[in-house]
Amino acid sequence: xxxxxxxxxxxxxxxxxxxxxxxxxxxxxxFLDHIVDRxxxxxxxxxxxxxxxxxxDGYAKKTGFAALVTTFGVGDLSSDNxxxxxxxxxxxxxxxxxxxxxxxxxxxxxxxxTFGDGEFEKFTKMHEVMGLKVxxxxxxxxxxxINEIVKYIIKTGKPAYLTLPIDVAKIPVxxxxxxxxxxFFNRDEEVTEFNNTIAERLVQAINxxxxxxxxxxxxxxxxxxxxxxxxxxxxxxxxxxxxGLGKCALNESLTQFIGTYSGALTDEPTKQIVxxxxxxxxxxxxxxxxxxxxxxxxxxxxxxxxISNDDFDFFGSHRDLxxxxxxxxxxxxxxxxxxxxxxxxxxxxxxxxxxxxSDKVLTQDFYDKAVxxxxxPGQTLVAESGTSFSGLSPFTLPDNVDFSAQPLWASIxxxxxxxxxxxxxxxxxxxxxSTGEGSLQLTIQELGTLIKHDLHPIMLVIDNxxxxxxxxxxxxKKSYNDVAKLDYTLMPQAFGAKxxxxxxxxxxxxxxxxxxxxxxxxxxxKFVLIQVHMDQEDAPSSLTKMGEMIQNKNN
Amino acid sequence: xxxxxxxxxxxxxxxxxxxxxxxxxxxxxxFLDHIVDRxxxxxxxxxxxxxxxxxxDGYAKKTGFAALVTTFGVGDLSSDNxxxxxxxxxxxxxxxxxxxxxxxxxxxxxxxxTFGDGEFEKFTKMHEVMGLKVxxxxxxxxxxxINEIVKYIIKTGKPAYLTLPIDVAKIPVxxxxxxxxxxFFNRDEEVTEFNNTIAERLVQAINxxxxxxxxxxxxxxxxxxxxxxxxxxxxxxxxxxxxGLGKCALNESLTQFIGTYSGALTDEPTKQIVxxxxxxxxxxxxxxxxxxxxxxxxxxxxxxxxISNDDFDFFGSHRDLxxxxxxxxxxxxxxxxxxxxxxxxxxxxxxxxxxxxSDKVLTQDFYDKAVxxxxxPGQTLVAESGTSFSGLSPFTLPDNVDFSAQPLWASIxxxxxxxxxxxxxxxxxxxxxSTGEGSLQLTIQELGTLIKHDLHPIMLVIDNxxxxxxxxxxxxKKSYNDVAKLDYTLMPQAFGAKxxxxxxxxxxxxxxxxxxxxxxxxxxxKFVLIQVHMDQEDAPSSLTKMGEMIQNKNN
Lengths: 555, 555
Ligand SMILES: Cc1ncc(C[n+]2csc(CCOP(=O)(O)OP(=O)(O)O)c2C)c(N)n1
Ligand SMILES: Cc1ncc(C[n+]2csc(CCOP(=O)(O)OP(=O)(O)O)c2C)c(N)n1
Prior knowledge:
The structure is a homodimer.
Chain A: H1 4-14, E1 19-22, H2 29-36, E2 42-43, H3 49-63, E3 66-71, H4 74-88, E4 93-99, H5 102-106, H6 122-130, E5 133-136, H7 142-156, E6 160-165, H8 166-169, H9 181-184, H10 193-208, E7 212-216, H11 218-222, H12 226-236, E8 240-242, E9 257-260, H13 270-276, E10 279-283, E11 304-307, E12 312-314, H14 327-335, H15 364-374, E13 380-383, H16 387-392, E14 402-404, H17 415-425, E15 431-436, H18 437-440, H19 447-452, E16 458-463, H20 468-473, H21 491-494, E17 502-507, H22 510-522, E18 527-533, H23 541-554
Parallel strand pairs in A: 1-2, 1-3, 3-4, 4-6, 5-6, 7-8, 7-10, 8-9, 10-11, 13-14, 13-15, 15-16, 16-18, 17-18
Antiparallel strand pairs in A: 11-12
The complex binds thiamine diphosphate (2 copies).
């Protein structure tokens, strides 16, 4: 019999997913049957729910959707922080929470995974307060409710939450309804006059500017809308920049790219070009503290047109434009627009000076250049918050390279599972992760998942004796910035890897690192882990300055 | 200068804690200075926030209080599920969340660890919806607010939540206020006439009963009030039982103990005694699904007097008693009461039949008996949800042995960090943990903390190829009940243990297990890890039945 469970999974499949993330529990086991019993879907089976949510986030960034399944209360709340990150950074994840049988909830039974108070609705309410669209599925309107929540995710690029009671999951559904999928879940929208007007005003503003600059952001990227702006930028030879948040929204090897901007700490010539801009068109970027070096961007409101996921404004106001705004439509409308006359911009970016390795003890500055130099076209670089993000995000990346990080929500431990999610979504793009040992420990158990699925990313673990990024903000020598001394070279085996599945390097010097990176890149059929030792107070020079800036903002 | 930070930490110290749990972040770093800069407090420094919350819970169960420090948003939400468990099972944990500077929040800055929407109050609201007492500390009434929240924890035994902005933490406080600590945080309460009346009615009811039975629960235990009831029970020779939830609230070696009750699946003679009872006086127990074998207790409302943390009732109603109820006062009042005539009860419990080890492959039934046999007086047995809890909780434990589990909230991964918390709180009671490999992987990184603090518990890891307890409920052979194949024997070294800090056993047979347990018990100065292999479908016989019962309830 075709049931709500089957329907929900067919929806997920239709939207383009082959994987579902999560952890089983007795309130979702029967739903999981419908995943593992079909051969076009993989149940990933995470080590815990927070990691599952991070992994779903990494997957959704690549595919435009991801589904996460947890069990009531315990699994749901464990995944909270991951889902909150998806909300903060506009990543379309659907959280499906298996709930007790409706009858048992109605009877307010003292069942496990509750507060023993008969109140089952608290969990959904908590997520509503967080800012998620939520829905408790019931026997009534089940299909409509599922459709509504999934359409919301598609139309907004935001995560959403639903609870699925055991009995509701089993309700029969007429399978013919699947024939309407293409109309239900159509991502395309026809451009209304209103949204076209916005696009035209924008073009007009560019025509009137002397030094227009496009800024592309994470909202554009995570909603898979970047190709629209790429076309516009390339056709009109418009200069563009990105931020650490949403970096690589557009291919950074395009000749129109001026480098990644990060406020006052930006390198030349990027900084100078931004400073000179008399118009900044922001497509879905957020100017948050970490990616603007604590709000030190040179342009002010009067110079910005914001075309954002939720809203738009021209120089701080909507002006006279009132109507039904759609990010998608405006961006789509812009795609084919032509400027009055093509621009004649050219930029000469500083190439990353090739790092000549010596036998000197590694520094973060050398490390960053060496890692950037090692990245091949088409790969994905994932950088954890901390020295990795600060050190790597300023560099321009090769053709078609993707970059992933979480600089707004900035939850450490995120990068590792999210990298695995990305690798599962796109196994053609080898993922290279740079993380700190302080961060990796939060979510290290997902190594078991990586190995079970036999993935082959490259993982660099910076072992610098603790939370260096925190040291730079406060408490340079304080014991709370120390962490347990782990031996990452033993981890693959401890988490189940067979000898021929992985390769390990333990590096201390410049040449050891370069050598390890070379071998890692040429060994494409293994998981490669590089443990990198660095001094506990060493950091990318920009981060040292950022540390002071953050401290000032906190004081 | 003496500040709010100092005050808050002095309060924690006054209440009797030497340890604070949590993870640093830039919104709490300066607060942490005030912990690590004094030599009478230990900052535990967890691997992640969920584990920190679990560990604080384990600590609070032993000490009656624990403090947890996290950073805004990311750390806070990561710890949620742990705090929710404390709420569900009445464990007094104070969650202190470091927040951005008040001015930055007022300006709605797009700072890290937020949704980038300028809304900082969502997090507190989420916790309020969960059911916690919450407080956002501000420059006004800071000391009063702290006092109010801490008094609440003391008076209710429940967790609570407060946010501490960076600037508020630095506000000067007059240190002389510490002189009032003894009056502010006095746990003792004088018994009012109203509460004494309840106690007297209760005694009267016992006097009128032919077969009265006392049931002691987790609320009594976690609020450290069991000694009051122990006195009453012993003086009057009253029979008592406990449940898996709150097991060992009273010393199970008392002659009045009739064994642990678990509804229809209870062994004789315990079951018979409970079935015969014409009056059950419930002191702080909750009759939840798992600990009553799905609500199969033999006594009904008309036989029960509930003296619970939040409320009381006589046979389902308050009758004519209206007044200010205090669990503490009623329990204290009962302590010294005498029955009309002392009872002449005697019980003969079945001793655990000593397991005679063979070279046969281990079964869960043998395992449970062998583990129980190995436990020494004064030790603490911690059992994870799953086969461990189901197998071990029915047995009567030796003199002064404590038992810890989480059968209502039942979040797997809880047992390991909570065991470490208990061991830190009471290093005189060696902790013995029994957990499953499916559960342990959720929180395994806390091994680094265990090793850093050089603790010496015994840890048994049941490796039965996945989630056996789930298999018994649904999906016996389904792949979602498999887990990554980890090698726990490599874990101590991977997580930083030196060769002389630990001992490892990898056991497959009965005699190997008994041998390992003997050696573990006689090696008190090392951490001992025993990896125990069992068949994937093997389970304690009671759990097999429970699995069917749960399945029926779900269907
Ligand atoms: C979940 C969570 N907890 C705490 C923090 C606070 N925090 C930010 S960076 C950091 C330290 C990162 O250390 P590590 O990964 O070792 O990086 P590095 O030493 O290279 O800077 C911490 C604890 C956070 N961002 N997220
Ligand atoms: C946080 C959380 N996620 C999921 C569950 C659902 N669950 C309950 S028991 C269990 C399996 C436990 O397996 P294991 O520890 O290996 O125990 P055993 O095989 O001995 O039963 C799972 C996944 C839960 N209780 N808590």
